[in-house]
Design a protein that fits this description.
Largest sheet: 9 strands, antiparallel
Number of helices: 6
Helix content: 10-25%
Distance between the termini: 177 Å
Shape: elongated
Radius of gyration: 48 Å
């Protein structure tokens, strides 16, 4: 073997060593990349918090998205269900009626976003129809014949409908429905989208239609969706052109003659009346009775008292003619029972001491 062959062998060996080193470096680099990418892969495989099989949960009363009127009935509990596109709340109210079932205020807010990306649980927003409302009333008030009102009414949120029916005993039941939604011509993906569905089922013993209907006029929607384009109420109404103008008076009440502060009724004094004649001893004041007991049979000066309209003894009534009434004060009959012909009754005066002032002025 000559020198040339040795140089070729050395060159081949050097190339093999270089290639082996390069392969070793690539292996270390691949391992480093693999170990560095494991946390990222683990993060990509991680999921959201555990999703429960049901979306219902119990909430305190202060988290109700719709509040009943201040006059009640009060909130007992709130059951909330979250969907991919809506939030549904069953607000149970206090019930004391005999009709089976629970007073309920149901609210559905459409236009929300689901907290879970892979869920498929949407709530369908059905329009208000006569057949749909009839089906709801049959499920909510089974066995109660409900009669729908034909009047057009509306509250602060727009038009609504209602029906009344007689439940068990003296119960009066009402079912009310309302859909809060912007006019169809103003709805777009960027403004005035979303809607609210309201249902109310109220039964109360000895209630009136006016009392139950006041529930639909005075409930308050407190919930909203955190989205600038969500607006089921529509555009705000423009200011009245007569505001601040001439010839358009505005009164503090609907009727200008209605007092702002109610007038208190005048207090009247109670006057005792008697249906028939009673003994003279029952209507005689104690002071007069004591004075009459101390009167002697001797002749003494008399004091004339104006004749009363009526006496309480049959003897005096037959001797006195009727005159216009001037007083209803208790009458003092004459101790002696003697009436003058001039229409006056004489009452003997007790004999008193000569002391005319102070506490010593006492009768013997």
């Amino acid at each position: 073997m000559n020198v040339r062959d040795l140089s070729v062998l050395f060159g081949m060996a050097e190339k093999h060593l270089v290639r082996k080193q390069e392969m070793s470096d690539l292996g270390h680099l691949g391992a480093a990349v693999l170990f560095c990418g494991l946390p990222l892969l683990a993060t990509g495989c991680a999921g959201q918090p555990v999703q429960m099989g049901t979306f219902a949960r119990n909430l305190p009363a202060e988290q109700a998205m719709v509040l009943p009127p201040p006059a009640g009935p009060g909130i007992v509990s709130v059951i909330e269900r979250r969907y991919d596109n809506a939030v549904d709340q069953d607000i149970f109210l206090y019930t004391s009626a005999l009709t089976p079932g629970q007073n309920l205020l149901k609210a559905q807010f459409f236009g929300t976003v689901s907290p879970f990306r892979l869920s498929d649980n949407k709530l369908t927003s059905t329009p208000v129809t006569e057949a749909g409302i009839a089906s709801e009333m049959r499920r909510t008030l089974p066995g109660v014949r409900m009669v729908r009102s034909s009047f057009f009414v509306q509250n602060n949120y727009g038009p609504f409908g209602y029906a009344f029916g007689r439940g068990a005993g003296n119960d009066l039941c009402m079912y009310g429905w309302q859909q809060v939604r912007s006019p169809s011509g103003t709805i777009s993906p960027l403004a005035n989208h979303g809607s609210i569905q309201i249902r109310a089922r109220i039964c109360e013993a000895n209630a009136t239609e006016q009392k139950l209907l006041a529930f639909m006029y005075n409930y308050t929607i407190t919930g909203a969706v955190d989205n600038g384009s969500w607006n089921p109420y529509g555009e705000p109404q423009p200011v009245s052109p007569s505001l601040g103008g001439v010839g358009a008076p505005i009164y503090p009440r609907p009727t200008s003659a209605e007092p702002i502060v109610p007038v208190l009724p005048q207090r009247t004094s109670a006057v005792p009346t008697r249906s028939g004649p009673t003994p003279a001893t029952q209507s005689t004041p104690p002071a007069a009775a004591a004075a009459a007991a101390s009167v002697s049979s001797a002749a003494v000066p008399v004091v004339s008292v104006p004749r009363p309209v009526m006496t309480q003894t049959a003897t005096v009534r037959s001797q006195i003619t009727a005159e216009p009434s001037v007083s209803r004060a208790p009458l003092v009959p004459s101790p002696s029972g003697v009436a003058q012909q001039t229409g006056r009754v004489s009452v003997p005066s007790p004999s008193c001491t000569d002391v005319t002032s102070g506490a010593a002025n006492a009768c013997r």
